[in-house]
UniProtKB/TrEMBL annotation:
GO molecular function, one term: 5S rRNA binding
GO cellular component: cytosolic large ribosomal subunit
Quaternary assembly: Part of the 50S ribosomal subunit; part of the 5S rRNA/L5/L18/L25 subcomplex. Contacts the 5S and 23S rRNAs.
Protein's recorded name: Large ribosomal subunit protein uL18
The family this protein is said to belong to: Belongs to the universal ribosomal protein uL18 family.
HAMAP family: Ribosomal_uL18_B
Record keywords, A-Z: Ribonucleoprotein, Ribosomal protein, RNA-binding, rRNA-binding
Species this protein is from: Poseidonocella pacifica
Pfam (any one): Ribosomal_L18p
Underlying gene: rplR
Length: 119
């Protein structure tokens, strides 16, 4: 049976996650999920199993409800950088999941870096 898009996505996601586990050094994980309409990001402390901060295009205060584009991703990246500072997090490792590092995923990471989060 040929590999479906979903199976290939799962393989890519697990490959990325396993590589990050080897080098995480106790840092928190900046996990990204992108759908056709929205993008969301969470800062996760895997040691304690706690989400420290999150941001999404579903939030009204960001003003980008229902948009999944580069500009919306940049606003979400800036928001997560601000919330990370409030939570006392200065550096994290970037878990892009199975998503390719271009377009809105890249814009989110660049905006988080510009906001002061060390990725």
């Amino acid at each position: 049976m040929a590999n479906s898009k979903r199976v290939l996505f799962q393989k890519r996601r697990l490959r990325v996650r396993n590589k990050l586990r080897k080098v995480n050094a106790g840092r928190v994980r900046l996990s990204v999920h992108r759908s056709n309409k929205n993008i969301s990001v969470q800062l996760i402390d895997d040691v304690n199993g706690v989400t420290l901060a999150s941001a999404s295009t579903l939030e009204k205060d960001l003003g980008v409800i229902g948009k999944n584009n580069v500009d919306a991703a940049a606003k979400v990246g800036t928001a997560i950088a601000e919330r990370a500072k409030k939570a006392g997090v200065e550096e994290a490792y970037f878990d892009r999941g199975g998503f390719l590092y271009h377009g809105s995923i890249k814009a989110l990471a660049d905006a988080a870096r510009d906001g002061g989060l060390k990725i």
